[in-house]
Amino acid sequence: MRQVRKADERSVIRHHAAPDLVSAGYASLPALRLLKRYGIETALAPRFPDPAAREAAIREQAANWAAKWDANSLIILRRALLGFDTRPDFARIKAKVLYILCRTDALFPPKIAPDVIKALTAAGVEARYFELDSDLGHSSSGAEHAKWSPVLREFLAPLVARLN
Predict the structure, then answer these.
(1) How far is Cα 67 from Cα 61, in angstroms, rounded to an integer?
(2) Could you give the CA distance from residue 62 to residue 18 in angstroms, rounded to a whole number?
(3) How sure is the predictor about 28, in pLDDT bands with cuts at 50, 70 and 90?
(4) pLDDT tens digits, residue range 31-75?
(5) Max CA-CA distance within the chain?
(6) N or C: which end of the chain has fewer CB within 10 A?
(7) Torsion angle of the four alpha carbons 43, 114, 79, 5, in this order, in degrees rounded to the nearest 10
(8) Which sequence spans correspond to the domains of the chain?
(9) Are 131 and 103 in contact (CB under 8 A)?
(10) pLDDT at residue 27, as a whole number
(11) In which element (H, E) is residue 36 found?
(12) What's the pLDDT score for residue 10?
């Protein structure tokens, strides 16, 4: 299990503890880093081809996000993500699994897929993997739905047929 980086937590807590920093733009720095990690630069590139304009748009989104989110909830979500291991419960899964990851996702990189599929299969779960070819990283699933919806439709077709 990975350790939660205490410096990240202190940064988020410090920004949350000083709401006046939000209006000054400092509290949006963790949000800015997170949005960039999610692939927002690539997602906004078509709308903002000028790097300075794109950076301004990203900073605006980060500031809006930081002003609306409770920073403590981000800490809780991070701890949950880092400390929660679903593998012991794989044998309890009764449904077929369609596991989709994006080629450029930095949070859930495709290199984890073989081990996940292997663990699911070992637990008796029928699982299928699809790698989404997108430059949009972690935020690709919505924007690139047309690239993976045929796979989902095919995956669900037997279930739909049984219901009809």
Answers:
(1) 10
(2) 17
(3) low
(4) 777 788 777 888 888 889 999 999 999 888 888 877 777 777 777
(5) 57
(6) C
(7) -80
(8) 6-82, 86-163
(9) yes
(10) 53
(11) helix 28-37
(12) 45
Q: From residue 23, how far is each of 11, 13, 14 by CA, in Å?
A: 16, 16, 14
DSSP three-state, residue 157: helix
Rounded CA-CA distance 65/150 in Å is 32
Take residue 156 and report the two structure tokens written for it: 């669900």
- Tokens 């997108």 identify what position? 134
Tokens 């980060």 belong to residue: 62
Closest by CA to 130, choosing from 99, 160, 159, is 99
Cβ contact 27:66 at 8 Å: yes
- Rounded Cα distance, 117 and 126, in Å: 9
Tokens in use for 34? 């997170």
**Cα gap 16→14, rounded to integer Å:** 5
Which single residue is written with the structure tokens 């949000």? 31
Q: What share of the chain is helix, strand, coil (3-state, %, to 5)?
A: 65, 5, 25
Which tokens sit at 2?
A: 């990975």
